[in-house]
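Problem: given the chain below (105 residues), write out its structure.
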Amino acid sequence: MSYLASKYVRTITGMTIMDTTAGFKCFRSIVLDQLDLKRIKMKGYGFQIEMKFKTWKMGFKIVEVPIIFTDRKEGASKMSGGIFGEAFKGVIKMKIASYFTKPGK
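Solution.
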């Protein structure tokens, strides 16, 4: 599911990073200073996508460091229809909004 979600996000946004929905993230302070964090709207997977998209739109370099997840041994997925729907619709809204706002805003 993560693979297909990332493929969808790459298709809509034009980003070239492989994993748009997960991964360990570190942001330089200059990136966080330039992002208007109050305007980040999505939660969950959508939050991760939106942060990467706005960082990418501002021209900052995104470096991916592969990590390996082992199969879940207990518990249940946090993925819900609401989270999926927010990310699915949110990516399109985010892309359209990017045509009308400055990067980071």
